[in-house]
């Protein structure tokens, strides 16, 4: 059965909603950073207490998350011009993600409601079986060589090398190690796999009920 252009648009919105939701939950996973403070012994890299370090992390995240916070200020970490530029570019990506989530969530809801009313939830199975395979492939490539993946990731999203921090001028990088970002990617891939698996599960269950 061919989808109408409106249903194709709804499917795209649903894919984007679930993707941006996974990103949103990942970038706001403060608990993961708290875990890594202990797990990676980040306090050994700074003179700060755990509370002070988390306060600085919260200041950074407030800048990245909130459009009305226009200047990055961390109580105990200076920021160079290039460091500020990179964080500004990250902030724009955060806000773009939130914008996509906000724009697609309602169309996704109406699309799902349409499929449920038409008893066609099963039509989600095939596209999401394809979609669920993509993160697996990307995660595999990441696991093979995370260093190269990390560089490529920044090369795709940024058109400069401001993301390469000098710990002398931007000491925040000493408490934001690459391993922390590796853990963030793992969390993201787990979440997006769960979210993309759900339409497959409910689609197959709906199909069984109709038989």
TrEMBL record:
Top-level taxon of origin: Bacteria
Signal peptide: none
InterPro entries, A to Z: Lit (IPR010178)
Pfam family, one: Lit
Protein name: TIGR01906 family membrane protein
Transmembrane segments: 93-112, 124-144, 180-202
Sorted UniProt keywords: Membrane, Transmembrane, Transmembrane helix
């Amino acid at each position: 059965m061919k989808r109408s252009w409106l249903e194709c648009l709804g499917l795209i919105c649903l894919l984007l909603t679930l993707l941006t939701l996974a990103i949103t939950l990942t970038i706001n996973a403060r608990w993961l950073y708290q875990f890594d403070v202990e797990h990676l012994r980040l306090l050994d890299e700074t003179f700060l207490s755990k509370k002070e370090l988390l306060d600085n992390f919260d200041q950074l995240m407030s800048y990245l998350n909130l459009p009305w916070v226009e200047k990055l200020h961390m109580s105990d970490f200076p920021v160079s011009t290039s460091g500020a530029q990179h964080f500004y570019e990250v902030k724009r990506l955060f806000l773009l993600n939130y914008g996509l989530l906000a724009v697609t969530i309602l169309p996704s809801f109406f699309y799902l409601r349409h499929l449920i009313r038409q008893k066609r939830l099963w039509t989600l199975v095939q596209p999401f079986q394809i979609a669920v395979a993509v993160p697996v492939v990307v995660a595999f490539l990441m696991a093979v060589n995370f260093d190269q993946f990390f560089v490529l990731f920044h090369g795709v999203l940024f058109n400069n090398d401001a993301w390469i921090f000098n710990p002398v001028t931007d000491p925040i990088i000493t408490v934001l190690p690459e391993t922390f970002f590796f853990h963030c990617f793992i969390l993201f891939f787990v979440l997006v796999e769960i979210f993309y698996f759900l339409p497959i599960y409910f689609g197959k269950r709906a199909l069984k009920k109709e038989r």
